[in-house]
Write a structure and sequence with these properties.
mainly alpha; 2 domains; two-stranded antiparallel sheet; 5 helices; 2 strands; 4% strand
Length: 156
């Protein structure tokens, strides 16, 4: 048995051995590589999941908007049909406000979705069913959308 002095043993332990250096180096490389691979995998997985979720949200939002558009289109077409029926009534076709006003007031009661009904005559004067409003005084000839409606024959 060989006994070493305490000083000799400390020198041997504190000196790096070539085997240990090589082994420590490779362990550190493996740990660093594993950390890098796990980090990159986590990052790209996050990006993929994030993009899938965003695509799903875009699709849902588009479908919700499309559903709302369809509901509004349906509502507008229903109201337009009601107004066209009113405009095609023989009483309304007389264009005599004294006869049309009671008819429109009755239609207002029948159709609660409308706050009031109005008529614009061939000279672009506005007649409205709201009590106390001056009828036949306001001229809408300067309004582009009114002129387009009158020229195209649109009744609503």
């Amino acid at each position: 048995m060989i006994f070493f002095s305490k000083k000799l043993q400390q020198q041997n332990l504190s000196e790096p051995q070539p085997k240990n250096l090589s082994r420590n180096f490779w362990v550190r490389i493996i740990i660093a590589s594993t950390t890098l691979v796990v980090s990159l995998t986590a990052y790209f997985s996050y990006q993929i999941v994030r993009n899938l979720i965003l695509d799903n949200l875009r699709t849902k939002a588009f479908l919700e908007v499309q559903k709302g558009v369809n509901e509004i289109d349906s509502w507008l077409s229903h109201k337009k049909a009601s107004l066209e029926a009113i405009a095609n009534n023989p009483i309304f076709r007389t264009m005599d406000w004294s006869k049309i006003k009671p008819y429109l007031q009755a239609e207002e009661k029948r159709l609660p979705d409308f706050m009031y009904l109005a008529m614009i005559d061939a000279d672009f004067f506005l007649y409205i069913t709201v009590e106390g409003e001056a009828n036949g005084v306001i001229n809408l000839k300067d309004r582009e959308h009114i002129r387009e409606a009158m020229n195209s024959g649109t009744t609503t």
